[in-house]
Amino acid sequence: MATYAIGDVQGCHQPLLRLLDTLRFDPTADRLWFAGDLVNRGPESLQVLRFVRGLGERAVMVLGNHDLHLLAVSEGVRKALRKDSLGAILEAPDREELLGWLRCQPLAYRGSDFTHVMVHAGIPPQWSVEDTLARSREVEATLQGPLYRDFLHHMYGNFPDTWDERLEGFERLRLITNYLTRMRFCAADGKLDLDNKSPPADANPGFAPWYAHALRRSAGVPVVFGHWAALEGRAERADVHALDTGCVWGGRLRAMRLEDGALFHCNC
To answer: What pTM was estimated for this model as a whole?
Structure first.
């Protein structure tokens, strides 16, 4: 029995199956954690959604920015982008069941058997793990509540860009969502730089990777995350584990066994 955390699948169903063969995944005993972005850009997003949903309690996931984009497109809040590959989901006979399941997923997850916490993008330096889980629940409650469509309308945008506990309403929810699903670089006070998608060495003045700040309150708790393919799986921190190794861009799909940190890959 083992638990594996897997990086951004992004519609790459066949590589996922090959990776699970490498792991000798046993759906009756093993568990999978997916670090978000199950869908988009790859050719088989529908198959990935159906597969992960079909695993039931054997799999958990957190929402990534591409998963949220799918929900927004499905509601007509955003137009599909030229590079999107979401059409098969939107036209599927089980579309509503799949989308309903997706919007019930968390933005941050901590299981009972491990100290690890999983997010798609990162945790701002001024939040503890408990803060992260609590603020994730604020967005989750909205996604699953009567203001679901209103939230999707207000979800997009880069401001506010710095955390303030006094933030309210959709501005507060937008910033929480940006931290957990879009962040790469930030300043020590949590100010976001959402435009820079480069490797860490190319940080703009005053900014650093979210995990590199000396006073990070989640330090010491193992964090697994995806989203940042330019890291190539190297976060250079013992308590931070980067899982996005660029499968959809021709790289590899990564899994990490939580029990011992062992890494497994499938070329894509």
So the answer is: 0.98
